[in-house]
Design a protein that fits this description.
two-stranded parallel sheet; alpha/beta
């Protein structure tokens, strides 16, 4: 039996002000601690040009031989359990979508994980497009990934609002002219978005 326990808070980059995603996989009497966040794989791939499979293979090489079968099983079976959408996410995007605003996803996410997880992302049906780091080989807060989204969907930076829980990513959006908001809570972010929209409409 394979038991997976999630630790941390779903980080995208190994920064001191943000906890890393990690998981403990218990199988066959062994407990294996993995940093299975996209930060380890995507950042390494971006820095060294390695593919995701090359990085997984390299990580496997650091596992004792007698535990590699457990590692292989975790890589194969563990992905579906690593991400759970917030309960409010779908309705939050829906209310903006229904009001006629374009809603887009800009995410740091490895390809193989996104392909597994997207089926459980109900909020995606309320979006008009997306740029995912693993597909474009770019990573927030690199200004290039924000420009990639703007160019792909012909958006004007000054008309866009970007929300991210990492301050550096919100600042990255600001660096290309997008209104960046650091996500601290649903209530806080929603109020800041609404305030920007009121200002855009000449209201206070």
């Amino acid at each position: 039996m394979l038991t997976i326990t999630l630790l941390g808070t779903a980080a995208t980059m190994p920064l001191p002000d943000r906890a890393l995603t990690a998981a403990v996989a218990e199988c066959g009497g062994h407990s294996l601690l993995f940093d299975c966040g996209e930060g380890t794989q995507t950042a390494a791939r971006r820095a060294g040009g390695q593919s995701e499979q090359e990085i997984i293979a390299a990580m496997r090489g650091n596992i004792p031989e007698e535990m590699r079968a457990d590692y292989d099983r975790f890589i194969k079976e563990g992905k579906p359990y690593l991400t759970i959408p917030f309960a409010y996410s779908a309705q939050w995007l829906k209310q903006f979508h229904d009001r006629g605003y374009g809603v887009y996803i800009l995410s740091n996410y490895p390809v193989s994980y996104f392909e597994v997880h997207k089926a459980g992302f109900e909020f995606l049906k309320y979006t008009d497009g997306r740029v995912v780091s693993g597909y474009v080989k770019l990573l927030k807060p690199d200004p290039a990934i924000y420009r990639c989204l703007l160019e792909k969907y012909q958006l004007k930076a000054e008309e866009c609002i970007f929300v991210d829980d990492l301050k550096a990513n919100a600042e990255g959006a600001c660096s290309v002219g997008i209104h960046g908001i650091q996500f601290l809570s649903y209530e806080d972010a929603n109020e800041k978005i609404e305030q920007l929209l009121r200002e855009e409409n000449g209201e206070r």
